[in-house]
Structure formats: C-alpha cells, structure tokens
Amino acid sequence: xxxxxxxxxxxxxxxxxxxxxxxxxxxxxxxxxxxxxxxxxxxxxxxxxxxxxxxxxxxxxxxxxxxxxxxxxxxxxxxxxxxxxxxxxxxxxxxxxxxxxxxxxxxxxxxxxxxxxxxxxxxxxxxxxxxxxxxxxxxxxxxxxxxxxxxxxxxxxxxxxxxxxxxxxxxxxxxxxxxxxxxxxxxxxxxxxxxxxxxxxxxxxxxxxxxxxxxxxxxxxxxxxxxxxxxxxxxxxxxxxxxxxxxxxxxxxxxxxxxxxxxxxxxxxxxxxxxxxxxxxxxxxxxxxxxxxxxxxxxxxxxxxxxxxxxxxxxxxxxxxxxxxxxxxxxxxxxxxx
Length: 338
Prior knowledge:
Number of helices: 1
Strand order of the largest sheet: 6-10-9-8-7
Radius of gyration: 18 Å
Structural class: mainly beta
Oligomer: single chain
Shape: globular
C-alpha cells in the first residue's frame, strides 16, 4: 500500500546560499501536523544506528564541532562533539596517511557501518581545520553512546567532500560536490562539477570511472557493493552507477527537486531528500522513496518553507515517522506516516 504523509499548507521562500540564516522559530511547538526535535545546529545529515534507539546527527555550521545523538525513546539529545575530553585511539595501520587527530570544526555527511555488536564504525565528512573523512568508533552500550576518534583520510586538493558510504571490502567512497572555491551557478544549470572518489588503505584516493556528475551530493551503495546510487543535485536526478564493471553502466531518473542526501532503508528502498524549485529561492523540502531496481521515485513529502523549518537535506524512517534534517535549521522535523 502506498504510504503518504500529512503535509502542511504553508508558503514562503528560502534563499539557499552561504551566509544566509535559515528558519528560526521562537519555540519548538508543532506546526500543523509536523513536530520537531529542537536544540540542533544545522542537522545536515541523520543516520539511524541499526538495532539501537540512537540517531546520529551532524552539525554543519563551521566552528560548531559537531556530532549529536538523539534518543528515539524520549527524543532527548546529547552532544558528542565538541567535548572537553575527546577520546582517541589512532589506528595508524588502517588510516596510514592520516596525520593524526585534529579539531573537528564541523560535520557534513555521515555513515554508520551496519553490524559490529556494541561498537560501530562511523564515517563523518569534515570541513574546516581540514577537508577530510574522520573515522570514529561508537560504543552503543553506553548511554549516551561513547565516541572515540580512530583515524582520518585527508582529501586531496581541490576536492570538496559531501557524503560518504563504507565499502563492503573496507575503505569508503565519498562524493566531491565541486572543487573548493568553484562557483555554484554552473551546477544549477547542469554543468559537470564533481565525482565519486574511493579511498583504500595503502592506495589512498582514486576517482570512480564514469562517476562525473553535476553536483554529486548524497551517496549510497548496494549491499553487494556492485552499484552506487548518487543524488545529482545539479540535474535534479537520481543516478545508478555500476562499480567494478566494464563497461560502466549508468542510468538516471528525473526528480522534481534537487536531490541532496540519500539514505538506504531497511526494506531496500532509498529515501532521497532535497529542495524544490529549479533556481533560487528554494521553496520546499522534498522527500521521495526510490526503488533502486526500477528507478521509480514516489514523492512522499513536499513541505513548504516556513518560519519553523526549511531546506530539508536528509530523511530517515523512525518507527511510524519520517525525520527530516536541514542544513539551515535548529531542529529536526518529524512527519507522521499514514
């Protein structure tokens, strides 16, 4: 049965550009049927830690440090980073090119490796002090979970990383949205700007053949590691790309919004989240459920910008709700599933 969501009939506009503040409400009261988890700082990405009550939350604005965790049982939040007493255990054998720990200025895309018992591996795209993927161990037996830094992979210049996903055989893949300092305007008209890059111990970074995309943003991978899924922000499309196959196979499906983050769901579908309208201003936060086999997209949220929430960037299923994060907000929005 098709699942739909209650939508709120509100209108306004939002300019998505660096330095422009996002929605800031005076309180944390619901807006129509949408409820919130407040006290966040630019929750650009969310990831549910499998088989636990915890949701890991990034904190995008530079200078905030930035990892929080939300307890789905009571909706309370805890700050994991920054902390006065960071835990570190440098795995220099795996992260052989990492120069060592550094201040975590802000976090962007997140990924938690499934399984692993009480200790899970977390990858976090990081900007600020260095452009990198930072790697942590998350001990979910503690409440709140305990975070330990174990390594990093510093991106080669001029990559501007966005999202990250672990690879089945080890290492990870990350999207580079554009080169650092490059203008965003050409991307909005569909110009190629970035690609997927893989990282492995011993060999480091290598661009994935055939992955050049206009504003490659979110990334996911099939359980067998044979297919990448990419949110193409610039062309408003969902891309399926073969991995390790010759010739490269690539297919693309159009969306009605600019796809930001992707998040694989337990049923094998992918939630694609982003912002509506082809140009500026961005007027809606959108979520679609994607079948990665058929590339069919079913839009399930189209939420107009308002003073409480706008510029949705990521979505996950939590019980009978879909939680949506925003790069420009101080809260996570909760939409009831019907």
